[in-house]
Write a structure and sequence with these properties.
single chain, mainly beta, seven-stranded mixed beta sheet, five-stranded mixed beta sheet, 3 helices, 12 strands
Length: 199
């Protein structure tokens, strides 16, 4: 990897636009499906599991932090109708995490501390569209916002940006996650207002 681990790439994706039915906020609301887990970086790891169920890649915290870092500025949109524009993150591209992983999978499920899961088409987390973020606004990502690391998929509603992510499981067939299995939209495009099953 060499110097690439320290260079990073700056990406300006925040368009400063609010999708239909959303309103901009200045603060950063905290919404979770359960209690905030206490996660030590010493015991933290991130794995990629392929569609055969085998571990295709794994990083300790130190190994993860040695990967190339990207700084990204994006707008985020919560299904509860708030949007926060121009948010600044630091993270590792999912493209980097999947580099060298041989897969024909079409889907991915993020598994997180606390048992939370969310599903996405694999196409929505590659080609510079998603990151595993560890920094927010120039500081370490706080636990209530998903620290030490969360998925960041800004073009979809924010429940798809799973907090406390620990595993990306590749699948041949789609498998609804936590919110998707109880009535939230399976895809979650904020520009199409895909909040619930019937949207």
């Amino acid at each position: 990897i060499g110097d690439r681990a320290f260079e990073g790439r700056r990406r300006q994706a925040g368009a400063g636009l609010t999708p239909p039915g959303q309103y901009p906020v200045e603060d950063f609301p905290v919404l979770t499906a359960g209690p905030t887990p206490s996660v030590s970086r010493d015991g933290w790891d991130l794995t990629v599991v392929d569609e055969t169920g085998e571990t295709a890649a794994r990083w300790t915290w130190a190994e993860f932090r040695a990967l190339p870092v990207e700084d990204v500025t994006v707008d985020i949109h919560c299904v509860t109708k708030w949007s926060k524009l121009g948010t600044r993150w630091a993270g590792v591209s999912v493209d980097t995490l999947l580099d060298g992983v041989d897969t024909s999978a079409g889907f991915v499920v993020a598994h997180c501390d606390g048992g939370y899961t969310t599903n996405l088409p694999l196409a929505d987390v590659v080609d510079g569209r998603a990151w595993v973020a560890f920094g927010y606004d120039g500081a370490d990502l706080e636990p209530e916002h998903g620290g030490p690391a969360r998925l960041l998929v800004p073009h979809l509603y924010f429940w798809k940006s799973a907090k406390w992510v620990r595993c990306l499981r590749l699948l041949d067939e789609d498998e609804p996650g936590f919110w998707e299995s109880v009535g939230y939209h399976n895809y979650g495009d904020p520009w199409r207002e895909q909040r619930y099953w019937d949207d």
